[in-house]
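Deliverable D5.2: sample structural annotation.
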Amino acid sequence: MTLDEKLWKQFNKALGQFQLIDEDDRILVGLSGGKDSLCLLEFLARRSHIHVPHFTVEALHVRMENIHYETDTAYLQNFCSTLGVPLHIITTRFTTAQDITDVAHPSPFKQKPPCFLCSWQRRKQLFNLAQELHCTKIALGHHQDDIIHTALMNLTFQGHFSTMPVKLRMRKMPLTVIRPLCLCQEDDIRAYAEQHHYEKQLKQCPYEKDTHRTSVQQLFRDMQQLNPEARYTVWNALEADGKLTEY
C-alpha cells in the first residue's frame, strides 16, 4: 500500500467511524497553510467529488497582523483554485497585555499567553464566517498525534483525562467541529506533503517552541521508546472513555 493509499484509507475510515459528514453538509476548513490543513483540504475536496454523501467545501485563511507568522496567500489561492474550493482570507489582530492601558477595567485575556490569544482570535473568525456562510461543519487539520499530545497535556497540567474531540457538536450554535485526519499520523502527513511538494510557510510562529506542547511531544516519543504500542494504548483509552466524540 502506498502512502497516498494509506492516508486516504485512514481519512475515509474516520469519516465513517465517527460519522463526520452528512448529506448536504457545507464544510468550512481552517486553512493555516501548514502541511496538515493543506492535506485535509485536498482530501475533503477529493471526497466531495464522490456523490454520496453530497457536500461542499470552502476554506478560510486568517492572517494575524501582530504575529510574524506568514503563508504565501498566492500559493494558497492557487492551491484552492486547483481543487475548486473557494478561499476566504481575513486579516485581524489580537490584544496583548502591552496593548491594554485601562487599568480600571482590565481585559479578561490580559494574562493569557500569545498562543492562546492568537488561537482564540482565529477560531472567532472561523466560527463567524461559518455562520455567515450557513455552514454546518468546521473541519480542522489535527491528526492523531495532536489529539494524543493534547490528552497528555491535559493529564499532566490540568489533572483530567480529555482531549480535542474528533467530533464536537457546539451547544450555542448549529455547528459541528470535525477532525477528519484523526486516524492519520504526523510522520505520514509530513512525508505526503514532501512527496506532493507542498510549499512551507514563509515564516514560522515565533512562539511555537515556547509552549508545553513541545515538551509533551518529547514525552510521547519517550513513551513510544518504552512501549512501541503506546500510541494505540492511549488512543484506545480515549475511545473507551468516550473522549473522542462530544454531543
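Annotation notes: The radius of gyration is 18 Å. Helices lie at 3-17, 35-48, 73-83, 114-132, 144-158, 186-195, 212-226, 230-240.
The annotation will be released with the project's public dataset once the embargo ends.
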